[in-house]
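--- STAGE predict ---
source: upstream dedup step, 1 unique chain passed
mode: sequence only
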Amino acid sequence: MKTIIDTATDAGKFTTLLNALKAAALTETLRGAGPYTVFAPTDEAFKHLAPGALNALLKDTKKLKAILTYHVVSGTVAANDVKAGDIKTLEGTPLLAARDGDKVTVNGAKVVQADISASNGVIHAIDAVVMPKGWMLAAAA
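--- STAGE serialize ---
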C-alpha cells in the first residue's frame, strides 16, 4: 500500500495540495510512519480561495505550513469514527467536526470523498481550504 503522498498523487485531484506540501517541506512528514488523517482540499477547493491568496501563501512558508498542518490529525480517523466537536490538529488549533447522518464536515467544509486508505493513514477529500479560527487569507494586491 502507498503512503498518503503517493496515494494523493495517484488520485489526480490533489495537485495543488501536493505542491503546497512540497513548498512547506511537509512531503517527507506525510511519507513517514504516521499514522495521519488528512482532510485534503481538492484542486477544485483551492480555486475558491481569493485571487492571489495561494501564490501569497506559497511565498510565506511559515503561514503555509501552519495552514497545511491544520488539515492533518494524528492517528487514523475513518469518516464513520468522526465525532461532532473539536478534533486536535497537528497545527494545534482544533477543527470543528459535524455530522449529519453519514455526511461529515470540518469547519463547514464537506467531506466529498471519505476513507481513501494509505499505508500511513487515511485521506478525506474536502471541498474547501479550512483555516484556524480568526485566520483570513487576503487576496494578493
